[in-house]
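check these tokens.
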Amino acid sequence: MKSDRQASSSTSSKNNNDKVHIFGIRHHGSGSARSLCQALEQLQPDAILIEAPPDAQSLLPFVIREEMHPPVAILIYASDRPENSVYYPFAIFSPEWQAIRYGLERGIPIKFMDLPQAHRLAIKEKEQTEVNPESIETESATSSQEDTKPNPETIPAFNLNLYRRDPLGWLAEAAGFSDGERWWEYMVEHRRDSHELFAAILEAMTALREELDAAEDLAENMADLLLEQLREAYMRQTIRAAITEGKEQIAVVCGAWHAPALVNLPPAKNDAAILKGLPKVKVEATWIPWTYGRLAIASGYGAGVVSPGWYDHLWHNFHHSSSQVAIRWITRVARLLRTKDIDASSASVIEAVRLAEALSAMRDRPLAGLPELNEAIQSVLCFGDPLPMQFIHQELIVGDRMGKVPEDTPMVPLQQDLIRQQKRLRLKPDTKTLELDLRSANDLERSHLLYRLALLNIPWGRTQYSTSKGTFKEPWQLQWEPEFAVRLVEAGVWGQTLIEAATDFTRHQANEAKDLPTLTKLVDKVLLANLGDAASYLMVRLQAEAAIAADISHLMQAVPPLANLLRYGNVRQIDTNIVAQVMDGLITRICVGLPVACASLNDEAAAAMYELAIAVNRAILLLQNSEYAEAWNGVLSQLADQSGLHGLLAGCCCRLLLDAGVFTANDVETRMGLFLSLANEPSQAAAWVEGLLKGSGLVLLHDDRLWQVLDNWVTKLSTDTFDLVLPLLRRTFATFPAPERRQMGERVKRNQSNQITVSSDSNFSNLDIARADAILPAIAQLLGIKLGIKL
């Protein structure tokens, strides 16, 4: 045992107290985790201190549960403000995760030693309320004596602005690397032995901190500097407490950056002074599932890893040779390409491995790293095409793995209710495409669940476009995001079950709604979520808002979504009686107020009203309600003949009435002739044509009279007027499908040919044959021919 402990001194950074061994690691570094495991085996510690918030100390036993599968994260949030939260994610290759498992499996005491989030979240709240962060320092300084102020010689300081810009970049630049990430991966993550690793890390970080300390401007970074001093002071206090407890071999696992600050312990009173009087809030902590995609984002550790899938591969294949690591990775890439219908032969895999190893040898790398593998894969397997590299990056380099936590993990009641429903409906929080059959009771309840979560701003699923002609198929794209756990906590203030929370939150939104369209959209969501109580409340609000709404456009916006509910509500077993009552009032008010609302509109307002009129007409056709259709057609007839109406709307009314069979072709021809007369402005005439024909020109192709009226109007336009209206006409005809435009072009050519023929015939139809015969002898003499020969 003694020899093992002596050996450990060469791989760890010893504190000035021989009982403390500092292991500076990189958060989420597979090489750091592997080296740490070896170092802990050599050291055989009797206490392990880990850089993590003590607020989550009670969650440690869950780590070794069989149901716990990383990646997972510790979620810590303020009890009264759940949105004030922070995550501490862990992957299987995270050094902290391996240290926790090592200690729990051997019964070694483990303590989290970072500054509690109860203090950090309180400081954050103060910053958000624009309280001067220096007040914390002032309070601490005034409450202590002059001789207890932190000593800048004993508490290291550094420039956090440079730290956040990747301070390892300095070392990387000196070593010829593009960034600190690549340097660390080459120097640490790819190492095959851990000998002297942590001592070397400490030496590098000490030199770097000293360099930054010399360039630091304390006045500019006081708030950030104080936070780092608070964290490191708390870490040192935790180390002192472990020594006081009589621990002989204390393993301290912290970020490499903090290691130099923990080696030499200053007088305890200095750290106690700086930690005195800190603000505090009540916090809660729990485990939540995490994903490799989210692991690539900076978190509570202030660190992320850009390629978690690759690090997972390194962790699980380290016992293989460097060649096998590359072979297994490129084999996985080849399998992925084959699933995407891209050829990836075994010979190509071999060539890609050889190329990657050659590149690593040229660059003096111990093994082929991700850059070399990516270059080889793109060159050999992707034939130089960068596009396949995108899904290789998404599915392998980053990865789509999602963790799991035990069901008895501390949760708010709302989250517990969601888990129960997920289990009952057999709906796991996975990323997948799901097509629900609303005729099935189970699928219908699944749909209700997804819509209820969406109401609570938890979009676990998003509806997709369906190619099915029926209304009972509902495709969804499901993707659970880790931050939904925080939103569930936030939504817990509205109720302890999903139905209760969604209902109360909907009522709150209804009370906050200021216009009719907002309420209508909310009604649509509520009915899809099958929230009967909330729907009844919304209908009361909708009726009240519709009764006082003065804007006809708002009333018209409310019609289409309600019409969809009335038409298709039976599939979802929705009570449509209350919707029908609201629809009756909306249609009546629209038909009464529309003529006034359409008066004196400019081009922009007329275009907006055109879209609303088309939408309302489509909704009324969908409902197949004769009373609605009669009232609507009546107001359209009134608008078609309304003096001063914008041409776009007048033409639109004529087209809708023609399609409905209310107007005949003669009626449209008459109004077209009036609107296209020279007495009207050409721009309004062109707008009328656009309103009549927009979207489809079949009416022109099948009605010769309308074609002729339009043709006559165009041919009579002056050159200047034609240049003015041409862009308007071109915009209208551009909305026609290509086959319709082609048929129109053929008809124009055909009409031109007919006109030439008719013109030729008409030149001879009025000749006086007798007078023509009288001059034939003279013409014959001039031409030198005999009269017996016919011309």
